[in-house]
Every structure is written in structure tokens, then in C-alpha cells.
Amino acid sequence: MATLVLGTVGRIFGGPLGGLVGTFLGGAVDRAVLGGGGKPREVGRIGNLAVQSAAYGEPIPFIAGRMRSAGNLIWTSGIAETATRNGGGKRSGPATTSYSYSASFAVALAGCEIVGIERIWADGKLIRDAAGVFTTPVTMRLHHGSEGQDTDPLIAAAEGAGGTPAYRGIAYAVFEDLPLGDYGNRIPNLTFEVVADPDGSDITATALARLGAIDGHGLVMPDGAFPVVAGHYFGRAGSLSEALAPLIGMANASVVDGTPIVIRSTGAAVMPVPGADCDTASAADTTPRERRKRAGGDSITSAVEVAFYDTSRDYQIGVQRVRRGGASRIDQQSFAAAMTPQQAKTLAAMLLTSARAARTTASVRLPWRYLAIAVGGLVQLGEDPAVWRVREVRFERFVLTLDVERVDVSTQPLVAGDGGRALVFDDAAAGPTHLELLDLPPLPGDVPGLPRLWIAGAGASAGWRRALVEASSDAGASYAAIGLVEGGVPQGVATTTLVPGPFDLWDRHASVEVTLLSAAMWLEPRSEASVLAGGNMALVGSEIIQFANADALASGRFRLSGLLRGRRGTEAAIAGHGEDERFVLLDTAALLPFDPPIEAIGRDYRFRPVGPGDLATPPIAGMAGGRALRPLAPVHLRLFDLGGEVRARWVRRSRAGFGWSDFVDAPLGEAGEAYRVVVALDGRTARTVTVTKSEFTYSAADRSSDGGGTAIAISVAQLSEAIGPGDFATASIALT
Fold first, then answer.
1. Alpha-helix runs per DSSP H in 520-655
2. Spatial distance between the Cα atoms of 545 and 542, rounded to a whole number of angstroms
3. β-sheet bridge partners, residue 591
4. Got the DSSP string for 208-238?
């Protein structure tokens, strides 16, 4: 039975992303989150498949405008486990069972109907950009929260038609089989950029109206302008007045007594009170008709700090400060509102101006006919142009007494503000994935027992991050996932021709210029000691080189020099270069290995990327050639004329040990030592034999029986039990 749970976003005083530090919010987020031969092994299995539930009964947030919100987990079918078994054959060693996990779940976003969602973050990492493109393959459905929305088909299938709520009036997103490997095999903390109102609307006024409608109260909107913001977030339980208080404070407005509720800003209509009425009182009263006073210096607000959600920094918490005069008092304000740093600083300036104006208070006595004036109303007294807000009303003996405070009604111009620098995720389009299929000799630290292929993946777009790779062995009739390429392997083309050079010492004369797939890719120079230790290994055409120097010529273009040539047994490719050959940096940590079975040698495969920009990317094709299992060509092959017979001697090489660690010999790397020897006489193949040591004698009698000849060429290749002969080395001799 699936589990129905309600998640929590904590009792947030000021918004969806957590508490503001220190006194800015006066509270912190309290959120629970999901959080050869041998014994077979199990890799990556977790012990508990239960999904952690959060506290029940937390409020569903209300959003106005555009805001980043952490949703509530309202449904999940649990975590699904998938087991994949690899190996277990004669040559591949013990079997390994790998486990992967995924989850299907629903997240409530807002307790109101929304326009849509844009970016999505998982554990703070951007997984969906502003264009709605996911960085990894994700199946998600969005329910906008209308009162007539239908049930979700996935939840209905899991819970049954009679037990599935439609969550009407609640906007929510449903994820199907989200892979959890990137999130520690748990459901990640998801935050969403929610759009609850169309752009261009008066967000604060809209929020006030919708809050009043939700609470069932009548609400008269202010007739003055509110500060410009991108969005508001209301995520705590409480009364309507608690929800309205931050919005009213932002506008320096007030609530006027009465029903319906009236919210009056400093731009509202002001009631003029003639000076003659200000002087009117009962004849028996001898107290001053109007008394004014100004608060002392200790109460002067010298600075205002505004904490907010910064739209220029992915809604991270920002603080803007405006200071005037000394440091006697600092007023710290926090608003669960999204805005730019300039808007926040303008708001801080307005609040500081209003606080300093409110230091001046007065008490005025008026005739009874002014009884319509209520707390929160605005008045102008006599010929004084100042505007006063009513804070208290008293009516005794037909005399109305008002306690008022000075109100600043000036319009605050936009103030320059800087949100600072922060690490934000680029939401550029991912673009297509470029794959290169590499059939290579064993790379450093790699001695495969299967015909390994390597896949290098990258993208030219700045938004490219990763792509799933699928393989097909039946000409594209079906595909299966084999892993992820991510980060981008530096690759491109050689724009100049790499000329031949030595393979047994440094090539200090040749160079090659390469243009990389993306300007964001980079090649680093290395010391010669680092290169000799295996650094800066790359594939140019079919030759593996190493380079010490990488000179940047232009964006994405480099000249490579200080070369070691024909590395890992590829010296046969030194003389076959041309322009526009492929270039791939051979970093095994970034390459994706693919290990088909031994019997697949010679079989054609197709590989395709499945990334957010790969709907139209064609697959690439290639054969499992088994280069990783092929023995290297012997070296130092020499032929000796011994008076009619020819003796061949050579030194073997090992694909299992390119280094000379013990100064004795390299490991054999094969089941047994054996060589295929092919003898050619005057250009025709005369004899093929197998020997078990690194020498061969071609006698005069054998040469005579083979038809004779004076030009002798002998080719030698080491034999592999798995793949047969490796690369051949050839030497020739002319007999006199």
C-alpha cells in the first residue's frame, strides 16, 4: 500500500528558504526531509526503503507573484529498488549486483491556483531551467490547483479510484520514477520557482485581495501605490491580521477600523480639518487644543536594514541597509517578499524616512461631527501641509480627541543597491550532446578483462551538464541505459596536421592545433615529469599522444607541443594524420566505460544520448573491436643472416604493464606466451607458424621448400587466448 504523507516547510516566519540569520526573521526553518571466481558482491544497496515522513498538519503555503518555494510532500509510493547483475562469467570474475533507486511522489506547491512553474532545484542544484528543460531525464506532471482539476493517473493507479484525492485548490507536481542516485538514494529537497500571478500585476495588492477572499473577509484595497516586488510568500499558520501585517508594513499603510476591512496607504485621501475646528472645544475645558511633541534622541532611528529574497541571486536571502546620522538605533525588518536589491534599498529608505517622521506626534481636539474619523485615517490639521495618521480616538463630553503621528507622503526614488556576488546556477539551454566512441588500448590504471569501449560526452552549449547514454546491439530496435556522461570531456578537432615523429623519445619539433567543442573547455600545460607519469594523454585521430605545452591561441583553440608520440602501442598511427581529425582528452574519470561480453567482439553497437537537448540527436555507431584485449606489437624485431638461414629475435610488450617497475620484465598479461610468425618470400606469404618464445629460426631447408627467394620479411604478433593475434611488428632482410 502506498504511503500518504504530509511534508513540512517548517514554521517559517519570513519565507520558503529558511530562517533569516539572527534577528532578521526571529525563527529558523524546522523541516524534516527524506532524509576471477569468488563470492558475489552487492554494491550500492541501502538497508531501509521507508520514506521518512514529516510532521502532520503543516500549513500549505500561499504565494502571490513569482517566488521560490519548498513544497510539501503529500504522496509517495515509496522508494523502488532495481538490481543489475554484471559479470560472473569465466573471464569476468565474480558477479557484481548493483542497486539503483527511484521514487514516485507528489509535492504540493501552493494553496491556490498558479500560472505555472519555471526553475526547479533539487538539494540546491538546478535540474530544470527557466525554459522548462530538465538537465536530466525527468517525468513530471503539474496540476495548477484549479477547483475542477482531475486526479493524477499515477496516484489513482497506486491508491485506487475510490481513495485518490484530486487536491482541488492545491497546486502540486507529480514525479514518476525520479532516479535518486545523485541525492544519496533519498527523495531530495525540492524547491520550485512558482508563478502564481501574471507578470505586470500589482503583486502586493493582488496578495491582499486574495488573502482577504481566502479568509472570508471583505477587503477594501488601498488607493495608494505599494512597493514594487516580484512575489510574496505566506507559509505560517495564523490569523488574517498576521498575514496582512508584513504587507501593510511594507507600504507604510494602516488598517482602518470597521467592516469591511479597509487598508489605507500614505497615498490615500486625506481629510482636511480647518484650523477653526482644531481650536473648538467645550467652554469649560482649559487644556491646550493641540499639543505637539517630538521623541527624544535615544529613540531616533538612524538606520533601517531590510532582509528579503533576492531575485538576482536565485532567491537567496539578501540584506540592504540605509543609514542616516549616528548609530543610536537600527531598525531591522524582514519581509517574505522577492525583489531586486535596488527595490529593497528603496524600501529601506522609505521605512527610514517614515520612522523619522513618526517621531513627531500630536494630540488634537475636534467637534463631535468628526466622529467618522477612525484609527488609521489620515488627516491634515489647519494650514499645516503635514499629513497625520490617527493612532487613537477618544470621545468624551461631545469632544473628539485624536492622538496622531506625522506621516511622510513623499515618493521615494529608486535607490542604487548591489546584491553582492553569489554562486548561482546557469539556466542556459542544455543543447545537444556530442558523443565519441573510443576503442582504445588499456589506459593507465585500466586492465580490462572484457572488450571495453569508452564513450566521451560533452556539449557545446553553456547549459550542457550531463546526459544518459543508451546502447543498442540490435541495430536500434531496442536500447538500454548504460550510464551517465557528465561534466564534459574536452574534445574537438585537430585543425592542423600532426606530422610524423619519433615514438621512443620526446618529439620537440612537431605541434598540433586543436579547436575544442566549447569555449568553456580548457587544456592545461604540465611539467615533463607529470607527463611521464601519465598526465595530459589525448587521442588525435588514432594516435594516443601526451603533451607538455598547451598554448591558448583563441577562445577554445590551443597549440599542443612537447609531445610523446605513439603512446599505449599506437605508434602505427604516427604517420597517418590529416586535418579535422578528432581530438579527445583521455581522462578516465570523465569517460564512460562500456564492457560488452567477449562474444560481442566484432558486433556493431549503437549509442545515443538521452539528455534534455537530445530529442533530435542521432545515435552513433561502432564495433566492439576488442582493442583493449589485443596484445601490443613486439619491439626491437631484428633479423640475422646466419649463412643461409634467418633468425628473428624480438622483445615482447605487455598491455598489462607499460611501466618497468621492477627493472626485470613486464608482466605477461596473457594466459600463456605464444606468438604468430608470418614469413613472406619476395612479397608472397610463404609460411605461418606459432612459437612459444621470443625468437624464430627460418632454416635454409624451409626456405627451399617454400619456393626460395632472397627478400625475406618476417612479421610477429603476440597471441591472446581471448582475441587471437595482436598487432604485428615486421622486419625485412635481403639475402646475398
1. 528-532
2. 10
3. none
4. HHHHHHHHT--EEPPSSPPPP-SEEEE-S--
